[in-house]
Amino acid sequence: MEATRNQKMRCPVIRKICDRYIRVNRPSVLRFALLLLAAKTASAQTPSTTEQRGPSIAPAVLLENLTWDEAERVLNSDAVVVIPLGAESKEHGRHLQLNNDFLMAEYCKQRVLQAALANVVVAPIINYSYYPAFLEYPGSTSLSLDTARSMIEDIVHSLARHGPRRFYILNTGISTMKPLALASADLAKDGILLRYTDLTKEDPIEKKLRQSGGSHADEIETSIMLYIAPQSVQMKKAARDLNPNQPGGLTRDPKGKGTYSPTGAWGDPTLATREKGQAVVESLITTILKDIDDLRLSPATAINR
Hints:
Elements: H1 2-6, H2 12-24, H3 26-45, H4 49-53, E1 61-62, H5 68-74, E2 80-85, H6 100-114, E3 120-122, H7 145-160, E4 166-171, H8 177-188, E5 193-196, H9 204-209, E6 214-216, H10 219-228, E7 250-251, E8 259-260, E9 266-267, H11 274-296
Parallel strand pairs: 1-3, 2-3, 2-4, 4-5, 7-8
Antiparallel strand pairs: 6-9
Helix pairs in contact: 7-8, 10-11
């Protein structure tokens, strides 16, 4: 108010009115100023919501962005460690990129972080695993079953030694479930719970929307990518490729062992739409978040470090 009073006013009438108001109401002005100062002081001294939470209810954090001492504070026995798993070099037909599963894992990882689940630590994405069915197609890579299992166990053991006992693999594959099941059984012997996304479970949303068969780079997977990463989809190259399912992986050889697929897809991606993808993805995210929440409430035995 004093600063306003000292400014040069263009209108003398307004200046007289202001001067008179301040003289008459000086006590009220003073009381208002004191109340304002007190409010600012209290606000500065009151911890923010994040500061009040404490370590037991910290929101989800990205492990790779922390320093080791910051990681020590969040890698405690209450934490659920989420480890995304998605191939960064595996064929997905002629219309989807080799990093298709990695893009999916990255998207789901971000959705988990956005959900701000309490005591969730999101680890870096694992971009290699067990994918033996696709090796006839250039650019596809696979670890052996034992290597894929051991890699999961080694990563989990490395983090578990600091306190966490609950781990969730944000899984984007089908063949990956075999090494994950083996790792889960091994880790349970050490009092560590390992669970993972099971994409073989029937989703009523997907069942309702699906118009054709298949399971790889097909109508549903292509729809998912049209929703989460449309720039990675080349729909002009999409083609129906749904030959009879045979034991083994996919093969480019019409007389070879396995399911013949000249494109590397198995299904009809031409039926894909962004709307289908949105419905399936949102259902999947709901399932993932529930899986993590259920894991948080599951009992785990102490780990001897």
